[in-house]
Amino acid sequence: MEQVPLVALVGAGPGDPDLLTLRAVELLHQADLVLYDQLVPPRLLEHAPQAEHLCVTQLPGCHPERYAAIHETMITAARAGKRVVRLKGGDPLIFGRGGEEGEILTAAGIPFEIVPGVTSGLGAAAYAGIPLTHRHHASAVAFITGHEDPTKESSSLDWATLGRFPGTLVFYMGLGHLDRILQALITHGMAPTTPGAVIHAATRPEQRVVEGPLDNLAARVLAAGLTSPSLVVIGSVVQLRPVLNWFEKRPLFGRRVLVTRPAHQAISFVRDLEHQGASVLTLPTVAVGPPADWTPVDHALARLRDYQWLVFTSVNGVHALLSRLRAGGRDLRALGHVRLAVIGPATADALRGYHLEPDLIPPEFCSESLAAVLKTQAREQRLLLARADRGRDLLREELATCAVVDQVAVYSQVDAVDAEAESLARLNRGEVDYLTLTSANIARALARAVSPDGHKAIRTGQTRIVTISPVTSAAVRELGWPVAGEARVYTLPGVLHALIDLNRMGPVRTRG
Fold it and tell me: What fold, for 290-414?
């Protein structure tokens, strides 16, 4: 019987988490240990929540002495029966030492597989709008290490051939020797006017590209202050960048946006922002948990037959109440007689996840609109409101004027700001362009955690706030913070559209 691979040498791609392959995701789901490079996007580790995560920088030794520790870690874990994913930036077999690691595993008798990734040269060129081959410009491409100093006496590279290469040259890790690389190419026959580009932080919202002819490119890069990781592309194909530069034209490209929602509710919003080009920071500001006492909820569930309406004002309320119903040994049949009202489309979708269709969604996704509609449809009936343990009491108060209303807290919200979080430190340093706030509770919790410098950055508009609704905006203004943008539709897509509109109205400051 063929041995099952215990180690997978997996390419993580050039930086954009969405460029990970399906096979890589599958292996991460199965992994017991993920041994990853420092430049691997942290979000990729979310595909392996069950695994131990170990960055190679945590191993003893310094580069390159650390390689022995990497090999030993893989072999020891595999021999213990663990499934190991060695997650490497770019592609394992293109300047990734995957070949060397495969040789070591073979010598140790450890079965392995290799999963290719999008190598940095391909990713950087595509996201910079530079085709590496083009029938009018280049029919060949060469990937070259930029680590080697072209002025040393003995070189493994044929600079005379590279100077006459009839296509595109891509230098990996070449920033430290950029001036000498360019001079060597010119010395060996390449025209000084040949176009070149240096691409920093390729495929990420921080991407920066500096272009210029060979005889001036190094000076331009120095003036722009580009740092590693950067990759160099040389050839006439660089001329096509103005036409094909798609990534940097995304509406929020390079803008730093802070998302303050609870972690489990932020994922889709974060990805929507990233797809618009934003550099997203997360700072969960409140945490959702069980109520302090389930007794009122259990009593209400025991009397479901007494209610004509069940009203949900949040996704969390849907999950909490229906989970408690199930925990009590009952299922959706207990709701067969009751009508369901929700505050907006996200809450409606949460219900649909349980195969329940809401009977009522108000025209505006707020308590005021929900109360107005229910007043006409639930007059003199009995309603159960499932909500958080803190927040506005408007809905109960309004409905109590015409109906019998019972309100239960099915979940709690507590402040959960990590005082040591890097995202909070960046907010306090004024390094956030846009701050998104989706509830009054979140705004107040954040205000309690922000430093005086952070408050100043917000008050002066250095960091601009976008809210989900007029209610949230009112709470923000009570804190002394200005509101720069507000969603017209009170949903997360509405917040995203407000962000895009605000960014189009005027640029924020430029960071160095």
Answer: Rossmann fold (3.40.50)
Low-confidence ranges of the chain (pLDDT < 50): 1, 510-512
Burial class of residue 211 in the structure, from the number of CB atoms within 10 Å of its CB (0-12 exposed, 13-18 middle, 19+ buried): buried
Instruction: At 438, list the tokens.
Output: 């989706």
- Whether domain 256-285+417-505 has CATH 3.40.50.360: no
CA–CA separation, 310 vs 342, rounded Å? Answer: 9
Can you read off the two tokens belonging to residue 202? 């390729």
Q: Domain residue spans in the chain?
A: 7-118, 121-249, 256-285+417-505, 290-414
Alpha-helix runs per DSSP H in 111-177: 120-128, 159-163
State how far the Cα of 234 lies from the Cα of 237, in Å rounded to an integer. 8
CATH code matching the domain that covers 7-118, chosen among 3.40.50.1820, 3.10.580.10, 3.40.1010.10, 1.10.1040.50: 3.40.1010.10
Rounded CA-CA distance 375/314 in Å is: 20
Q: What are phi and psi of 256, to 5 degrees?
A: -95, 115
| Fold of the CATH domain 121-249 | 3.30.950
Residues 6+ away with beta carbon under 8 Å from 102:
9, 112, 114
Residues 6+ apart with CB under 8 A from 249: none
The pLDDT score that the predictor gives to residue 149 is 67
pLDDT in tens, 349-407: 999 999 999 999 999 999 999 999 999 999 999 999 999 998 888 999 999 999 999 99
Q: What is the DSSP string of 196-252?
A: EEEEESTTSTT-EEEEEEHHHHHHHHHHHT--SSEEEEESGGGGGHHHH--GGGSTT
Q: Which residue has the tokens 């740092």?
A: 227
What 8-state DSSP symbol labels residue 130? -
